[in-house]
Predict the 3D structure of the following.
Amino acid sequence: MDNKPSFVFFGSPWQAVVLLKHLTQHFQPALVITQPDKPAGRGQTTAPTPIAQAAEQLNIPTIKPARLNQKTLQTLQQLNPRPAFGFLFAYAKIIPKPILDFFPKGIINLHPSLLPAYRGPSPVRQALLDCQKTTGFSLIKLDEQMDHGPIIYQQSVPILADDTHQTLLDKIIKASLANLAPIINQYLTGQIHPKPQNHSQATYTKRTTKKDGLINWALPDQQLDCFIRAMTPWPGAWTFIKLNNIKKRLKILKAHLDSGQKLQIDIVQLEGKKPVTWKQFLSGYPQAEILK
């Protein structure tokens, strides 16, 4: 019989898959809890979450409750042996107290910021929007409030000048893997005692929508650069342009600051067209005018 502590994984997006696969190498997966199947892609075909797909490949039982309720708790109570802990990343639901209390060691949450900074749904994006040079990740023991629980472990991660939301999140997750299993084991065996956050220092982030990618050209060039990288790849930084008196949407896929710290646009995509360099775009549409 395997003596590894067992756990339940809460998560949904593709970024969580690497964490699930890593944890299954060190602990015994008992169950995956993920979001219900949703329409995805251009055809809007109903599809399971990336975590559900990974769990199927790994032969891990999976449930997809629309709400975490008494039925979810009953499913957990039927697991044998009882899982030692839960692990959560990007599940996007507040966990009710009866489910938190079910796990002897609670639910461990990986949050991609140095809490109490950047609580909420968009910590990586907000760090970029604020032009920060450093961010990191926190392992906390979840409580009933959002990103409020005591800290098990934290580590800083540098933000580079060319980091986008995707590259920075990937870097944070990769950094977390280096010590994730040993830290969890130390916590499970009582060698680490979670410490309360300084709640007076808390800052908060909001959920991002597609319209949030609209560029405000009144911002200084450095902030524009931070904004474009924060919105890459989703929802994408975009602006309106005028072509032959027709208003069109143009995505700024890549830009950079030159040595004089002036924003230089590199790659753009006109709605309905393929990405091209800024030079190619201006060559094809010399009359194009950005509406600022």
Q: What stands out?
A: The mean pLDDT is 96. DSSP finds nine helices and 14 strands in the chain.
